[in-house]
Amino acid sequence: MSRSPSPRSFRASAPVRLDFAGGWTDVAPFADREGGQVISAAITLRVTAEFEPGGVGLLLRAEDLGQAERVVGPAELSGGDGLPLHKAALRMFPAGPGTLRTRSQVPPGSGLGSSGALDVALVAVLAAARGEELSPDEIAALGYELEAREAGLPGGRQDQYSAALGGFNRLSFKGEVVGIEPLALDPEFQAELERRIVICYTGRSRVSGDTIARVMGAYHRGDSAVTGALRQLTDLAGEMAGALRAADLARVGRLLSSNWSAQQRLDGQMATPEMTVLEQALGAAGALGGKAAGAGAGGCMFFLAGDDADRVRAAARAAGATVLPAGWSSTGVELC
């Protein structure tokens, strides 16, 4: 990564992602015990963090959320309920007085991994402000530590690695070990895949720490339905990697839908009524398959259209969804 040209202002951005298969299997304790894998692709919607040194104390601003908080002393970085990732980042990377601003190009609770991209952008910008050079792998690992350990928010590791690395990747997880296998797709197929992918925002996700605790608690207790679904999700990730490499659009579509079916077996609240209506409408319009982005229970779904992608997009809007335009991002976290 290249450094910011200005010595008084630092800026970093990181992409959000689409998880084609295997989501949830990167979350402990399943990932620790059995190992999971996720097929993830970074997209051109990004999260940006900027740090401007100077002044007295710290001003924290999440501009897309309309939230701001002034911090006078270090003790205040551990208090209050607002902007927990900003505060956790500054506890990990004290950068002196200044203004820390962030902005996301995706709606809140989208399921597109925006908190993981925010983690990565925060680590990158504050490390740069401190004169530290980190590799993308290091930024991803520290981004996960920021969210899961420093901020105490439950979740897996896929979002931080996709945001840091960019591109299409097959990510494997076993305890603290993350395996990274870039997927080099046929260029014509990748372009056609981009033309046919339809990303639909259905409304803010209801998935919370309670949902994650409920799913992984069931796995910990040996619930056969949840355990079987998680194992199937791991297998589907391997199949999806093969379908993408083979440039098999029809198989990619079928696997998206199979992943969504397995995901819904994890928890009874995984599919909202809006998501069910959208899935039915886009299937009738010619979609080859689709799934929730990320954890589910609202947020975004994405679909692989048949030959008439415009018809599928029109059906999504008619069903009440907001269609988010985006392409593939070959770049991960960047200082700019």
Gap between N and C termini, in Å? 9 Å
Structure annotation, total helices: 11
Helix-residue proportion: 25-40%
Major beta sheet, specifics? 8 strands, mixed
H/E order of the elements? EHEEEHEHHHEEHEHHHHEEHEE
Say what oligomer this is. Answer: single chain
Number of strands: 12
Radius of gyration: 19 Å
pLDDT averaged residue by residue: 93
Assign the structural class, choosing from mainly alpha, mainly beta, alpha/beta, alpha+beta, or little secondary structure.
alpha+beta
Shape: globular
Low-confidence stretches: 1-7
Strand share of the residues?
A: 15-25%
Summed up:
The chain is an alpha+beta fold and 336 residues long.
Describe this structure in words.
The chain is of the alpha+beta class and 336 residues long. 40% of the residues lie in helices and 23% in strands. It contains 11 helices and 12 strands. The chain has helices spanning 30-33, 84-92, 114-129, 136-150, 158-165, 187-196, 209-220, 224-245, 249-264, 273-284, 309-318, and strands spanning 10-21, 36-53, 58-62, 67-71, 98-104, 168-174, 177-182, 197-201, 289-292, 300-304, 322-323, 334-335. The strands form 2 sheets. Strands 1, 2, 3, 4, 5, 6, 7 and 12 form an 8-stranded mixed β-sheet that branches. A 4-stranded antiparallel β-sheet has the order 9-10-8-11. A hairpin with a 7-residue loop joins strand 9 (289-292) and strand 10. The protein is globular. The termini are close together. The relative contact order is 0.19.
